[in-house]
Amino acid sequence: MPKEFDIVIRSGTIADGTGSGLYEGDVAVKDGKIAAIGEFLGGGAEEIDAKGKLVTPGFVDVHTHYDGQITWSQRLTPSSSHGVTTGIMGNCGVGFAPCKPEDREEILKLFEGVEDIPGDVLTAGLPWNWETFPDFLDSIESKPRDMDYAVLLPHSPMRVYVMGQRAIDLEPANEDDRIKMRAITKAAMEAGAIGFSTSRDVFHYTKDKRWVPCFKSEEEELREIAMGMNDAGRGVLQAVLITENQCLEDFEEFHRIARAADRPLTYTLLSTNEAPDLWRDVMASIDRDNANGQTITAQIFNRPVGAMLGLDSSLCPFSALPFYVDKLASLPFEVRVAEMQKPEVKAALLADKGQPSLPLYEATHRFEHLYPMSDPVDYEPLPSQNVASLAAARGVSPYEIMYEAVMANGGRGKVMLAAINYSRQNLDHAFELMNRPNTVLSLGDGGAHCGQICDASFPTTTLMHWARDRKRGPRIPLEQVVKKLTRDTAQVYGFHDRGLLKAGFKADLNVIDYDNLTLSPPIVVNDLPAGGARLIQPPRGYDATILTGQITQRFDMPTDALPGQLIRSAQLAAR
């Protein structure tokens, strides 16, 4: 006898994305949509026993960088292994379209520098069967994926496409340049771009240590581009703002641009060491301008931002030491670990004081911001756990502490550099931001920074740390945490068909063994083109992830289902 539904999730603890209280019930799925929610629903062709398990909407990640990976892989991991069912790529003004054939090398330098993806990986993986942005959308749409995805038009490649070397040299755009960029923006929005992205991030360098082409773009240029979105009647303006001046005006400039173009705005807001409390003034400005009719959201992060330093990472605690660079860095990993175990090699390494002139010196010598990583991972370590404090307590060199940390687990141990978002060595500011309106959890950067970070695991951290495990301050109710990962992020880009467990909504769901949910320490896998390496953090506890009514993950392992599709802007309701 035919079953009434395709899937029925039985007796789960439902966090429906609204932020209202948890309740127990069944969720029925049919034809890719949520058909019913209640008790004792009819039979399903497949049934999932969710008694004692958490049932949530699929997570929406608004800040990813799968622009490269999507061209060679149908699986957008690691995000899809952490419950993400919809992702936005093309952030930070970097991407691969539009791009003329003669500019490909410069664009590779851009992505290799900013997003830490090796050039040989990109060379082996990118098909380059596009030139314009609409061409790029057509190219990536040709295969199904394990996530839905949407794409922002990135500023830097568009600037190079229009201005050539003048863009790379950071020259201001002239009137003709601005007119061309406005037209390209309008055409990209009409072709399906979800918005436009740019960067004022002081850490965004190309491979040859130049600031990215869009870094110095003037307000007049950005306003003209935003008017291209206005011409099309769609699109969100996205910016990453860790600026040279670290002042409120840097953010309010974008408020003016978005107001002039009548477009929604979303940008990065972190607590930096240089201006740890600037976020308070920025949030006051956002709240004021939203009260006056704008739509502005701050993209915040819920753990430190920085890098994972290790012998198998792209950055090592000893990368600024001449002895390490000259004698050890070029050795194969296993040989290097064996050499470093020799007492005389260890002594020579720890005796080296480093070269302050090297760009890596400052990062690897900020010992008060360096923390040996533990298992289980602790993303809110105490000040007493940083390298400086541990070394002082034991009366040894900070390098001794880092040596022990990276040599753990057969040389695969890690030291966390908390460069940003941990200025006071706690996450109290993140707690406050997560509880404020007009903020969304973001900045996982899935698909990028392959050798240094694995922040795409942040949805799992959010569930574990903020609702269940936090010890250094108050927690956030689980239903509110789920809302931050689902409905709040879905609304930033106008995804009105997902982010809630509600009849008629898209059947994107997670079934999570919440009580036993865990996150591994970072590990390196070599699964990129040309054997390239990347850091990942495998979770344990995702019993099922469902996308458009098909199970894409089962007990933390992928299935054969690939229902993910490109979301073009025309599919969304007008904003």
Automatic annotation (TrEMBL):
It holds the Pfam family Amidohydro_3. InterPro entries: Amidohydro_3, Metal-dep_hydrolase_composite, Metal_Hydrolase, Metallo-dep_Hydrolases_sf. Residues 46-552 form the Amidohydrolase domain. GO terms for molecular function: hydrolase activity, acting on carbon-nitrogen (but not peptide) bonds, in cyclic amides. GO terms for cellular component: cytosol. PANTHER family: COLLAPSIN RESPONSE MEDIATOR PROTEIN, HYDRANTOINASE/DIHYDROPYRIMIDINASE FAMILY MEMBER. This is Amidohydrolase 3 domain-containing protein. It comes from Novosphingobium malaysiense.
